[in-house]
Every structure is written in C-alpha cells, then in structure tokens.
Amino acid sequence: MSALEGPRRHFRLTDSTNERARDLALAGAPHGTVVTADEQSAGRGRHGRRWSAPPRAALLASAIIRPLGEEHRLLPLAVPLAVCEAAETLAPVQCRIKWPNDVWLEERKLGGVLIEARPPEWAVVGVGLNLSVSRDALPPDLRWPATSLGHGVAPEAALGALRETLGDWLAAPPEAVFRAFAERDALQGRMVSWEPATGEDPGGAGEPDERMVGRASGIDARGNLLVELPGGERVALGSGEVTLRL
Ligand code: BTN
Prior knowledge:
The chain is an alpha+beta fold. Helices cover about 20% and strands about 30% of the residues. The strands form two sheets. It has a seven-stranded mixed sheet, sandwiched between helices. Strands 11-10-9-8-12 form a five-stranded antiparallel sheet, with no helix packed on it. A hairpin with a 5-residue loop joins strand 10 and strand 11. The N and C termini lie far apart (about 35 Å). Biotin binds near residues 44, 46, 51 and 62.
C-alpha cells in the first residue's frame, strides 16, 4: 500500500483548486501533484453547483492523476471510498456514500468529490471535506444538509490521511472497490426519485417534467445506479444524467 505522492501547491485564497490543478495538468505537472487552499472564491460542485467553506474549516484539495488508463475507470467510486477511509482514520466516525460520490456522515453531507478529466491524459480529483464548518457558516440553499468531521481535525492532517487512502484505493482491484462501495452504499434499498433524461420513460405515461421513482438496488459494473421501478423493471442511471432526491 502506498500513498499518492507528488508535489504540493498551496494557496491561501484561490478561485478553485480544481481550476488551478487543471492549469497545472495542462502544463504537464506530474501524477500525484496536489493543489490545496485555505479558501476558495469560486469552489465548484457537481452539476454546476458551488461549493463553499470558511477559511481553513475544510480540506480543499485537488489531485492530478495521469495518465488516465482503463485501470482508472472506477475512479468515481474509488475516490469517495478513500475519503470515507481517511475520515475514519482521523475521527471515530463511520461514513457512507450517497451515489455517485457524496460522503455522508449520519445522513448529512460531510464531503463531496468533483472529477474533471481529459482522457487519456489526466484527471483532476477534487475533494471537499468539511472539518470544522459551523452550520451557520454554510449557505442556506445547499441541496443536502451538511455536517463536519469535528474532533479538532486540521486540514494538514486530513490531507496526509487522504494521500494515504487515495494511493490505496487507486491501486485497488475492481472487485474490492465494488465490495467496499456496496458496504457503504447509503442508497441501498431506499426510494429515490429522479428526473428522466429525454426519451427515458419506460412506462410511456409520464409527462416530460414528471419525476420518476424507484428503489435503489446497488450499482452495475460501469458504476451506474440500479433502480427497481414500481413495475419490477430495473433501470441503470448514469451519474451525469440524473439529479437524485431521496
Ligand atoms: C459536490 O459534492 O458537488 C462536489 C464538491 C467538490 C468540492 C471540491 S473543494 C476542492 C475542489 N475544488 C473545487 O472547486 N471543487 C472541489
């Protein structure tokens, strides 16, 4: 087991560590390069959402993975596993994953992952992990209620733990990734609803803007979420296509 080693670039304030890591990747920075920041002025979340945290209250880190090969196809599952494990080495907690890659602690969002890639050259793996964010400091319009790790964990310690666990999970065999993800799958057996992508309406009766519902039943070999519809049919949802609600 080996940590994700590489140069580190730290900013007191930057727009987005993912953006800075992307620039470094384009300029040829090596595998394992990590960009961190005390604070971001334009932190990015998935689906174009923003990500914000007060200075030094969260780990804000983006790592460059290169080259991007077939062995990285489970990166979206491996990274939240690494974040869960890092959190658990730092504090007496047990984390779960809300597909595709939100890290949950006691039904609240502890961290998020934003992967931006230019295959086959590189991927930037962005991780935001709340450490000591007071609830009042979080924007009121966050989609999921957020939480923090607490226990006095500092960003430096969190980065050290994350480098260790990322190294491990990037090298893990697919079956280990699937097994660990299934053990941490916060959606397993729960009812979820989503907006159908254009043309996806197996019952044929839905209005275009009607949400669909079903019971989450694990993930498939491509990392899609499997959902059992009320009629018994199973559909696979891709992470880019849907926004989920519980
Ligand atoms: C999400 O849950 O929507 C993903 C959030 C990812 C946030 C992190 S913070 C560090 C890195 N830089 C960014 O701009 N975003 C990611």
